[in-house]
Amino acid sequence: MARLTVPQAGSARALLFLDLIAYSEGTSAIEASDDGYNVLYGGGLFTGYRDHPRLRLTFPINGKPVTSTAAGRYQLLERYWNAYRHSLRLEGGFTPENQDQVALQQIRERRALEDINAGRIKEAIRKCSNIWASFPGNTYGQNPHKVEKLLARYQWMGGVMA
Question: What CATH number has the domain spanning 6-156?
Protein backbone atom coordinates (compact mmCIF):
# COMPACT_ATOMS: atom_id res chain seq x y z
CA MET A 1 0.00 0.00 0.00
CA ALA A 2 1.03 3.56 -0.63
CA ARG A 3 2.71 5.08 2.43
CA LEU A 4 1.13 8.52 2.30
CA THR A 5 -2.01 9.20 4.29
CA VAL A 6 -5.28 10.35 2.76
CA PRO A 7 -4.69 13.98 3.85
CA GLN A 8 -1.22 13.92 2.26
CA ALA A 9 -2.48 12.37 -0.99
CA GLY A 10 -5.72 14.30 -1.15
CA SER A 11 -8.02 11.28 -1.40
CA ALA A 12 -8.32 7.56 -0.82
CA ARG A 13 -8.86 7.14 -4.56
CA ALA A 14 -5.48 8.73 -5.27
CA LEU A 15 -3.81 6.25 -2.91
CA LEU A 16 -5.65 3.38 -4.57
CA PHE A 17 -4.47 4.56 -7.99
CA LEU A 18 -0.88 4.53 -6.68
CA ASP A 19 -1.45 0.91 -5.68
CA LEU A 20 -2.80 0.22 -9.17
CA ILE A 21 0.40 1.64 -10.70
CA ALA A 22 2.52 -0.60 -8.46
CA TYR A 23 0.42 -3.60 -9.49
CA SER A 24 0.70 -2.69 -13.16
CA GLU A 25 4.46 -2.11 -12.96
CA GLY A 26 4.79 -5.42 -11.13
CA THR A 27 6.83 -3.96 -8.31
CA SER A 28 4.50 -4.69 -5.42
CA ALA A 29 4.43 -8.39 -6.33
CA ILE A 30 8.20 -8.89 -6.02
CA GLU A 31 8.74 -11.21 -3.07
CA ALA A 32 11.06 -9.93 -0.35
CA SER A 33 10.56 -6.36 -1.59
CA ASP A 34 9.33 -3.51 0.58
CA ASP A 35 5.97 -3.45 -1.25
CA GLY A 36 7.87 -2.49 -4.38
CA TYR A 37 9.63 0.59 -3.00
CA ASN A 38 13.06 -1.03 -3.29
CA VAL A 39 12.68 -2.73 -6.69
CA LEU A 40 15.11 -2.16 -9.54
CA TYR A 41 14.26 -2.34 -13.23
CA GLY A 42 14.26 -6.05 -14.04
CA GLY A 43 13.05 -7.12 -10.60
CA GLY A 44 16.18 -6.99 -8.46
CA LEU A 45 16.24 -5.19 -5.13
CA PHE A 46 18.28 -2.29 -3.80
CA THR A 47 19.05 -1.53 -0.18
CA GLY A 48 18.61 1.76 1.60
CA TYR A 49 16.61 4.83 0.65
CA ARG A 50 19.33 7.46 0.95
CA ASP A 51 19.13 8.18 -2.79
CA HIS A 52 17.86 6.76 -6.06
CA PRO A 53 20.06 3.70 -6.76
CA ARG A 54 21.27 5.26 -10.06
CA LEU A 55 21.95 1.92 -11.76
CA ARG A 56 21.72 1.46 -15.54
CA LEU A 57 20.45 -2.06 -16.11
CA THR A 58 19.79 -3.81 -19.41
CA PHE A 59 17.26 -6.59 -20.01
CA PRO A 60 15.72 -7.98 -23.20
CA ILE A 61 12.13 -7.02 -23.91
CA ASN A 62 10.55 -8.55 -26.99
CA GLY A 63 13.98 -9.62 -28.18
CA LYS A 64 15.57 -6.16 -27.89
CA PRO A 65 17.87 -4.95 -25.12
CA VAL A 66 16.30 -2.17 -23.07
CA THR A 67 18.45 -0.15 -20.69
CA SER A 68 16.86 1.79 -17.88
CA THR A 69 17.58 3.49 -14.56
CA ALA A 70 14.01 2.83 -13.38
CA ALA A 71 13.71 2.07 -9.68
CA GLY A 72 11.24 2.05 -6.86
CA ARG A 73 7.56 1.26 -6.59
CA TYR A 74 6.68 3.41 -9.61
CA GLN A 75 9.86 2.66 -11.61
CA LEU A 76 11.04 6.26 -11.58
CA LEU A 77 13.95 7.10 -13.85
CA GLU A 78 17.04 8.65 -12.29
CA ARG A 79 16.77 11.88 -14.33
CA TYR A 80 13.18 12.43 -13.18
CA TRP A 81 14.09 11.74 -9.56
CA ASN A 82 16.74 14.43 -9.77
CA ALA A 83 14.28 16.97 -11.17
CA TYR A 84 11.40 16.16 -8.81
CA ARG A 85 13.63 15.98 -5.75
CA HIS A 86 14.50 19.62 -6.36
CA SER A 87 11.15 20.95 -7.62
CA LEU A 88 9.16 19.31 -4.80
CA ARG A 89 11.87 20.11 -2.24
CA LEU A 90 11.94 16.51 -1.06
CA GLU A 91 14.15 15.72 1.90
CA GLY A 92 15.23 12.38 3.26
CA GLY A 93 16.17 10.59 0.07
CA PHE A 94 14.37 8.10 -2.18
CA THR A 95 12.01 7.09 0.63
CA PRO A 96 8.67 5.38 0.07
CA GLU A 97 6.84 8.60 0.99
CA ASN A 98 8.92 10.63 -1.47
CA GLN A 99 8.32 8.06 -4.20
CA ASP A 100 4.58 8.42 -3.54
CA GLN A 101 4.89 12.22 -3.71
CA VAL A 102 6.65 12.08 -7.08
CA ALA A 103 4.10 9.67 -8.55
CA LEU A 104 1.27 11.93 -7.37
CA GLN A 105 2.98 14.92 -8.95
CA GLN A 106 3.34 13.04 -12.23
CA ILE A 107 -0.38 12.23 -12.09
CA ARG A 108 -1.17 15.89 -11.42
CA GLU A 109 0.98 16.97 -14.37
CA ARG A 110 -0.99 14.66 -16.66
CA ARG A 111 -4.19 16.29 -15.30
CA ALA A 112 -5.46 12.90 -14.22
CA LEU A 113 -6.07 13.51 -10.51
CA GLU A 114 -9.52 14.96 -11.10
CA ASP A 115 -10.41 11.89 -13.19
CA ILE A 116 -9.20 9.58 -10.41
CA ASN A 117 -11.22 11.41 -7.78
CA ALA A 118 -14.30 11.28 -10.00
CA GLY A 119 -13.86 7.54 -10.62
CA ARG A 120 -12.89 7.95 -14.28
CA ILE A 121 -10.07 5.44 -13.96
CA LYS A 122 -9.95 4.45 -17.63
CA GLU A 123 -9.40 8.11 -18.54
CA ALA A 124 -6.74 8.49 -15.83
CA ILE A 125 -4.90 5.42 -17.14
CA ARG A 126 -5.02 6.87 -20.66
CA LYS A 127 -3.66 10.23 -19.48
CA CYS A 128 -0.82 8.57 -17.54
CA SER A 129 0.14 6.03 -20.20
CA ASN A 130 3.13 8.06 -21.36
CA ILE A 131 4.62 7.82 -17.85
CA TRP A 132 4.20 4.13 -16.99
CA ALA A 133 5.22 1.61 -19.64
CA SER A 134 2.86 -0.99 -18.19
CA PHE A 135 -0.18 1.20 -18.96
CA PRO A 136 -1.86 0.66 -22.33
CA GLY A 137 -1.62 3.35 -24.99
CA ASN A 138 2.08 4.15 -24.85
CA THR A 139 4.77 3.58 -27.46
CA TYR A 140 7.40 2.01 -25.20
CA GLY A 141 6.86 -1.48 -26.61
CA GLN A 142 7.13 -3.12 -23.18
CA ASN A 143 4.00 -5.28 -23.22
CA PRO A 144 1.47 -3.05 -21.43
CA HIS A 145 -1.53 -4.53 -19.66
CA LYS A 146 -4.96 -4.39 -21.24
CA VAL A 147 -7.09 -1.63 -19.77
CA GLU A 148 -9.80 -4.15 -18.87
CA LYS A 149 -7.35 -6.04 -16.66
CA LEU A 150 -6.34 -2.84 -14.86
CA LEU A 151 -9.94 -1.73 -14.35
CA ALA A 152 -10.84 -5.16 -12.97
CA ARG A 153 -7.88 -5.00 -10.59
CA TYR A 154 -8.86 -1.50 -9.47
CA GLN A 155 -12.34 -2.76 -8.61
CA TRP A 156 -10.92 -5.87 -6.93
CA MET A 157 -8.84 -3.56 -4.71
CA GLY A 158 -12.04 -1.82 -3.66
CA GLY A 159 -12.07 1.03 -6.14
CA VAL A 160 -15.35 2.42 -7.40
CA MET A 161 -15.61 3.72 -10.94
CA ALA A 162 -17.99 6.31 -12.35
Answer: 1.10.530.10
Q: Is 77 helix (H, G, I), strand (E, B) or coil?
A: coil
Per cent of the chain over pLDDT 70 is: 100
What are the catalytic residues? 25
Residue 111 near residue 127, CB atoms below 8 Å: yes
In our burial notation (b when 16+ CB lie closer than 10 A, e otherwise), range 4-37 reads: beeeebeeebbbbbbbbbbbbbebbebeebbbbb
Q: Does residue 61 have a pLDDT over 90? A: no
Once rounded to an integer, what is the mean pLDDT over residues 123-136? 96
Q: Give me the pLDDT at residue 141, please.
A: 75
Separation between Cα atoms, residue 84 and residue 89, nearest integer Å: 8
Q: Where are the domains of the chain?
A: 6-156
